[in-house]
Description:
Distance between the termini: 35 Å
Strand content: 35-45%
CATH class of the largest domain: Alpha Beta
CATH architecture of the largest domain: 2-Layer Sandwich
Order of helices and strands: EHEEHEEHEEHEH
Number of domains: 2
Amino acid sequence: MNMAGDFVISVMSRDRVGIIAGVARAILDLRGNVEALSQTVLRGYFTIILTVSFSEEMPAERIQAAVEKSGSPGELAVSVKPRDPDAARTAPVTGDQFVLTIMGKDRPGVISRISSYLSSRGINIVDLYAYTEGDNFVMLSQVTIPGNLDIRQLQIDLEGLLLGSDLVIRLQHEDIFVATSEIEFRHKGMGSR
């Protein structure tokens, strides 16, 4: 399918130096412009998602092939999809931004339990980072909470989900979290409030 316009590209592989440089060069060689990018390395695996615009018709298959060729044969798993222009303008949930943190002794099912609860209440997860180190679990998440929900009750409900564990869960308004820590979310100013 040929079309000019915007695409969403995702790339995943084992981490190594130079993946972003290769992907960016492949896009530039096709005369594309990277408009937004989010990248991370997780336990030795590299992942990136980009939105890219092209001013002339460009088949998704050509973009995919060019990005794949920026790595060794079979190294990069690449997906290319046309970007819905309304996606950035239509948030799944409107409300205030909050930060949800969970820390303590690891146990299976924490992410499943918490994300299912959030979904059941209509709370959108905007950004999430979680990892285990030895027996310790850490999760840091930015969520959008609809204005009609009672934050105190949400905190009580979330604590109830982890009852009997050594995990501590906190829900703070993003403004309070930013004011009391040195961490800022990468999405600030890029589509969120």
